Amino acid sequence: MKLNMMTISGLESGKKMQERSKSSSVSNLPLILDIDDFKGDFSFDALFGNLVNERLPSFQEEAADSADRLGIGGTDLPNGHIRTSSDATKFTQGLSAPLFPEVDVLLSLFKDSCKELIDLRKQIDGRLYNLKKEVSTQDAKHRKTLTELEKGVDGLFDSFARLDSRISSVGQTAAKIGDHLQSADAQRETASQTIELIKYLMEFNSSPGDLMELSPLFSDDSRVAEAASIAQKLRSFAEEDIGRAVPSVVGSATASRGLEVAVANLQEYCNELENRLLARFDAASQRRELSTMSECAKILSQFNRGTSAMQHYVATRPMFIDVEVMNSDTRLVLGDQGSQASPSNVARGLSSLYKEITDTVRKEAATIMAVFPSPNDVMSILVQRVLEQRVTTLLDKLLVKPSLVNPPPMEEGGLLLYLRMLAVAYEKTQELSRELRAVGCGDLDVEGLTESLFSAHKDEYPEHEQASLRQLYQAKLEELHAEGQKVSESSGTIGRSKGASVASSHQQISVAVVTEFVRWNEEAISRCTLFSSQPTTLAANVKAIFTCLLDQVSQYITDGLERARDSLTEAAAMREKFVLGSVSRRVAAAAASAAEAAAAAGESSFRSFMVAVQRCGSSVAIVQQYFANSISRLLLPVDGAHAASCEEMATTMSTAEGAAYKGLQQCIETVMAEVERLLSAEQKATDYRSPDDGMAPDHRPTNACTRVVAYLSRVLEAAFTALEGLNKQAFLTELGNRLHKGLLNNWQKFTFNPSGGLRLKRDITEYGEFVRSFNAPSVDEKFELLGILANVFIVAPESLSTLFEGTPSIRKDAQRFIQLREDYKSARLASRLSSLWSSSS
């Protein structure tokens, strides 16, 4: 059966089935089922329960009573009815009664129901078949209808397309007709206006200078705007016609003469009308009637685009016509007449003045925006007038370009005062231009106009800057010279050489002076950066200004080194002056005293020169640091500028390096001269040939050695402080070599015995320990070899041959030292060693 495919309403179908079951049980007729019972929400359990429940009422009641008496529980039927246990039924009813008496009735009911259900299924199948046929037929009709509708819609679209094309064509035709109508209307309007203009032109063409017979339009103050517009159109027409006229044609010539009269009359009328409007504009301006001013300005804009009205308005501003305003500007910036203005006061004055100008322009801008139809053009004229008249007048009084041939003296500020004033004025005026640009200046190139105000000064600025640096340098040298003169005069009458030494000490190189040079240059570079906007121009100007610094520093330190060298030269001259031969004891004592004075002067000049070298190095370091921090970054944007400046710096400083090198050579000469004097005065013959008196040998250094080492320690302290790096190493190495050579020459004058050899070795050790502070390996090696050479005076004659087996390089010096032995002749060392030297060589 296919019952599970159908649905029945649960509650209604149950009621119907109960009624039909009752009638069927009474009459024993077959069960009748209706198709409607299966519609809606169908439940098979409900259908089955309704069929069975009517057949089991008495059985259910008996089962329930038996269960209550026996206390036997029942179980619920699946359809909701209570089913008693089969064991309980057997005990209550007995084995003689049927187990389920209604089974036949139910079986019959089920069979009848099955037959009814089969019949209903056949009815439903028949109905379904008929519905399918009907649906198929209707679907075919529907498809046919849709096909016909599609054809109809396509035709409708074609009709709409033709209609749209037609509408478009009609629209284009209508637009053309509209254009023609508009053109015809414009032509009609133009013709009407032309007729009116010709009528007015004939009035102006009546007679020259006769403006009395004109239409009321041209004399009615309430119609001034219309009259101005018509007058301008008539002038344009007449002037254009005169321009097209051909003089050779009689008619054209006549027409031109007639129109020339009209043009003259129109010009006269326009001038009179413009003057009348300007007078009304001025009257309204005095009363601050902005609406009347705006009306007049709008009408005047038809005359030369309103240029006359704009210029007239700007020219009548109080700051351009009031003389007191100009005088007030001068007093505010330059101070009272006759007083010397300083750059700081000028800066404050310009700031105040330019703020006042900016505020005034801002107030005028508010009026201009409310009055003029083209406010940007008026603002352009106003700002231009401010810069060209008010600012320029002030700058002409403030900036008076000095002469480079006869510059102003330093007492009056010199060229530096002009340059500082120029920088202050330029910077403040640039700020003013930016403020005016913010307020509004139309299409005016206010920055370019501001630059043009300073063009004459900027063109010659580099020359003035370099001349100012030279003037400052010259003034500084004069100041230093004057200070030196005062010191010399205050020292009183002293010796010529001593006075020169005192004056020289007060003319030493000063790092503070070089720092001042750099400060001047730094200030100049700041102005150069301010005035030079292009990188190439800036680099060229910076290089020129920095070259001035290099020249100044080089000349200053070179002169300082040369002055220090002069002291060394004077000390050397003093030494040579008192080198005497064999003279009396009295004269020798005086010469020795003078030699001591010369030695003191030499030591003082040595220290002075070392101080000069130290300050020279510090000055060069300051310049190099300044170049690295401030100059190089300005030169890098231009190819080759940085390298060229570095090369120029090295070349310029080479002069000072040459003077320093010569001075250091003189220092070595001075030191060695004093060493030789000390050795000559203090070294005794008995120092190295003490008598053999049985006394213990003296292991102390000789007095000469002690004096020399003490002198060197004292005087070279300045060199250790002043020199550094390779310069220090080269100087000490050269001095060590000269000291080694001088000691050898000194010892060649004496004869040595064994105890004297020990004393010599003690001196060599003392010298060696001192020169070890030079940190010069080559010098240390030479003094170590001297210690070995000193052994030739200590060993026995027979041991000399083996003394230099490990150091053959000093054999030549050893030959000379051996000749200084006290027993050289007595021990016949010459013949004994000659064969040894020849065989070993």
UniProtKB/TrEMBL annotation:
Lineage: Eukaryota, Viridiplantae, Streptophyta, Embryophyta, Tracheophyta
Originating organism: Durio zibethinus
InterPro entries: Sec10-like (IPR009976), Sec10_HB (IPR048627), Sec10_N (IPR048625)
Keyword set, alphabetical order: Coiled coil, Exocytosis, Transport
Region of interest: Disordered: 1-22
Record bears the keyword Flavoprotein: no
Family: Belongs to the SEC10 family.
One biological process term in Gene Ontology: exocytosis
Descriptive protein name: Exocyst complex component SEC10b-like isoform X1
Residues annotated as domain Exocyst complex component Sec10-like alpha-helical bundle: 226-831
Annotated Exocyst complex component Sec10 N-terminal domain residues: 106-220
One annotated Gene Ontology cellular component of this protein: exocyst
Composition-biased stretches (Basic and acidic residues): 13-22
